[in-house]
Design goal:
alpha/beta, 14% strand
């Protein structure tokens, strides 16, 4: 079944990229070069033509992050599932040294981002931030270590590379008719950030990088601390600064912009089929969140199930051994 499309006729097609850049993200768009290794070279307000030129289909790159996960040995089968199901995709497992190296390379001309990332020592904040930094420049599919690929990425939607889809996002939680979300959830609709598929230089991810960067700096200022000293006081510090609440707010803001309509949880609650908002495909809850057993999520795999999240994250590890800030 083809996805439902929410799109204003006069902004149909990929020309929306230029509109987005000029009207909404003028301060965010990086100076893109024509080299194969595109660099973020700071923000400016006159790169709409370059942005539109470089907004390509979601690349066949799979990214995962392992910051010394204590149960990594038991998750290797999950990592392997992404390789087995997607032989046409490259696969990179980033440890902290590799993550720092790619951030240095891609953000070498953006000292604010570079300093913010390299000074962080909180494992969860750093891992969250890294996924956005990598996807913003490289694009591709990010998925947590504790996810199992059920269907090949090429089967997530028909004619994937020939559609206008430039981002694929799944619903993590849907409040439905409940009075309020259960403990640990703070929005009536919350989007997954354990798995994200997106084009390189997509304005949604560029804005997310900017928002997280500012959020981390604000968290440090509010506690009169250096970034290196920040450790989450509770789950909210993660959820609202780098995690799914922050991500969900940015997604809703982008959906509202590209449709010129205020998109809220009311537009998505009870979603039973994929729905296209501009260039972002929103998937129903069972696509990325089968097994939760609430909010419409089935306990067993369905035809909609694309992956399984087993919730074996390493939130409790506070620090990572990371390369020196001065390392070249």
């Amino acid at each position: 079944m083809l996805p439902t499309v929410v799109w204003r006729p006069h902004v149909a097609g990929l020309t929306i990229a230029a509109v987005v850049v000029y009207l909404w993200l003028r301060h965010l768009i990086p100076d893109l070069s024509d080299s194969p290794n595109l660099q973020v070279q700071g923000f400016s307000n006159h790169h709409s033509d370059q942005y539109q030129k470089h907004l390509q289909p979601i690349p066949k790159k799979i990214w995962q992050i392992n910051f010394n996960h204590p149960r990594f040995a038991s998750l290797e089968h999950s990592v392997r599932s992404w390789k087995v199901k997607n032989p046409s995709h490259s696969h990179k497992l980033l440890d902290d040294e590799a993550g720092s190296r790619i951030v240095r390379q891609q953000y070498r001309n953006n000292p604010e981002v570079l300093k913010t990332y390299l000074e962080l020592e909180s494992t969860i904040l750093r891992a969250d931030y890294l996924r956005y930094l990598v996807l913003a420049v490289q694009g591709g599919i990010y998925s947590d270590l504790d996810t199992d690929a059920i269907k090949a990425i090429d089967d997530w939607l028909p004619d994937f590379d020939n559609t206008n889809v430039r981002a694929v996002i799944g619903i993590e939680y849907d409040q439905l008719d409940s009075a309020k979300p259960p403990k640990g959830l703070y929005m009536p609709i919350q989007f997954c950030q354990w798995t994200i598929a997106i084009s390189a230089h997509h304005p949604l991810m560029l804005r997310m990088v900017d928002s997280v960067t500012r959020g981390l700096q604000q968290l440090a200022r509010s506690r009169n601390m250096n970034l290196s000293d920040i450790q989450p006081a509770d789950d909210k510090d993660v959820l609202f600064t780098t995690g799914p609440v922050k991500w969900s707010r940015e997604v809703f803001a982008y959906l509202s912009f590209v449709t010129e309509t205020e998109i809220t949880h009311r537009n998505l609650t009870g979603l039973s089929e994929s729905r296209l908002f501009g260039d972002v495909l929103i998937l129903p809850i069972n696509a990325f969140a089968t097994g939760l057993g609430y909010a419409g999520s089935r306990t067993v795999d369905t035809e909609e199930t694309l992956l399984r999240h087993t919730f074996q994250g390493s939130w409790k590890i506070n620090k990572v051994k990371k390369p020196s800030l001065d390392k070249a």
